[in-house]
Prior knowledge:
Bound molecules: pantoate
Strand content: 15-25%
CATH class of the largest domain: Alpha Beta
CATH topology of the largest domain: Rossmann fold
CATH superfamily of the largest domain: HUPs
Amino acid sequence: MQIFRSHHELQNHLLSEKEKGYSIGFVPTMGALHQGHISLLDLCNSKCDVSVVSIFVNPLQFNNKEDLAKYPVQHEQDLSLLRQNSCDVVYLPERNDILGNEIENIHLNLGDLDQVLEGKFRPGHFDGVVQIVHRLFKIIQPNIAVFGEKDLQQVAVIKQLQKSFYPDVLVLVAPTKREPNGLAMSSRNMQLSDSGKMKAAAVFDSFLMAKTMFNSLPASKIIDTVTKKIKEHGLEVEYVSIINPETFKDLNKTDKKNMKAYICCAVICEGVRLIDNYCLTDD
Length: 283
Ligand code: PAF
């Protein structure tokens, strides 16, 4: 596994790999890696000759300074996990190597996507994601890039970025990995105590309950029940929504019959903000 701190050196290396006819797969991360990230890397390795993982805690996507300051950083563990899981190349830049103004910002109109759920509760978050992924795509020029379904709205944003600016990159989405108790794997779980991890599992339990109610009850009733159940476990609820994943708008009655529907939520557990989502309809 080769580790690059300079994007120029990374680019030279990847250029020579491409000249040999190798395809490049890319998994962007903010580090503090877990089995969820490894499932993205596995998918990447199964589709491409050379896998590239980036590790960079992107300050542009944090609207809350405290949240950024406490984001877990553990490079040694991350590198050893990547080594054990057949990663070929790691890009681990210093702030200036990636955010220096060599690559210019782009403007991507996200429309309503930036006004609801994560867009509403974390102003500027998606623009920060767009700017960093744009820089990473520009440097790495991958054939495919893999993202996790746990960040469902981020996936929609990235697909818009891909369509507008990177039509040759294939974006793949890997399903959410969960702990045995249902808690969605996330780097932020490292900030929870054992009892916090147990409490946070109420989110998935309530999603399963929502699925059983989906065909018989209106969305508003399901949202109320889920919110109540999550709060009973001592979590704060920022939002619970049932949305049409094409538009991210609240599902309305006319949608309900033939549409896919996802339940999405953001909760606070022991001061840690967690998001999760679950498909309520069958494929
Ligand atoms: O999903 C993440 O970890 C981040 O949002 C990403 C895509 C690495 C951009 O910083």
